[in-house]
Specification:
The protein is an alpha+beta fold. It is built from three helices and five strands, in the order βααββαββ. A five-stranded antiparallel beta sheet has the order 1-2-3-5-4, covered by helices on one side. α1 packs antiparallel against α2.
C-alpha cells in the first residue's frame, strides 16, 4: 500500500473445536426416560470426543438423572414431554432439562427423615464441587429450564 499503511486485519473467529456444539432431544416424562437420558448424554460425550474428566462426566450424568427424575416426578401431569439439552464449548459443558410446568423448584435442605427431596441440593453440590454454576430459568412458554454448567477440567482448589 502507498505510504506504508497496512490494510486492517479482519477479525477472525476461531473455528469451533470438533467436540463443540449443541444437541437437544425430547422424551416422555416417564420413569424409563431417566436411564435413557443418562445413556444418551454419556454416549454423546464419548461420540463427540469431549475431553471431560471421569469425575466431571460422572457428575454430569448424575445431574442429568436427578433433573430428569424431577421432571418425571413433579412436572409430568402438566408437561408430558421434557427436553434434554447438552451444550459443549471449548472449556465447559452444560446440561439442561426443560419442562412446561410453571413451578420453579428450590433446592431443599436435607431432611434425614425423608428418602427424597434432595435432588436439587445434590445437583447444586456436584456443580459447586466441580467449579461450575447451576440455575433455574423460566421459558417463554411458561415452563422452566434447570441447568448446570461444569468446566471440562476440574477446578483447582484455591
Amino acid at each position: 500500500m502507498a505510504g506504508g499503511a497496512e490494510a486492517p486485519l479482519e477479525a477472525k473467529t476461531p473455528d469451533p473445536l470438533p467436540y463443540e456444539g449443541v444437541w437437544r432431544f425430547t422424551a416422555p416424562a416417564v420413569d424409563a426416560s431417566v436411564p435413557q437420558a443418562r445413556h444418551a448424554v454419556r454416549d454423546l460425550l464419548m461420540r463427540q470426543g469431549v475431553p471431560v474428566s471421569d469425575d466431571v462426566a460422572q457428575g454430569l450424568l448424575l445431574i442429568v438423572s436427578e433433573l430428569v427424575t424431577n421432571a418425571v416426578r413433579h412436572a409430568a401431569l402438566l408437561s408430558p414431554m421434557l427436553a434434554v439439552e447438552v451444550a459443549v464449548g471449548a472449556e465447559w459443558v452444560r446440561v439442561s432439562v426443560e419442562d412446561n410446568h410453571p413451578y420453579r423448584p428450590t433446592a431443599l435442605e436435607a431432611d434425614h427423615g425423608q428418602t427424597g427431596g434432595r435432588g436439587l441440593l445434590l445437583v447444586r453440590e456436584i456443580t459447586r464441587e466441580a467449579g461450575g454454576v447451576c440455575d433455574v430459568e423460566h421459558t417463554t412458554t411458561g415452563g422452566k429450564v434447570i441447568w448446570a454448567a461444569l468446566p471440562l477440567t476440574l477446578a483447582r482448589p484455591a
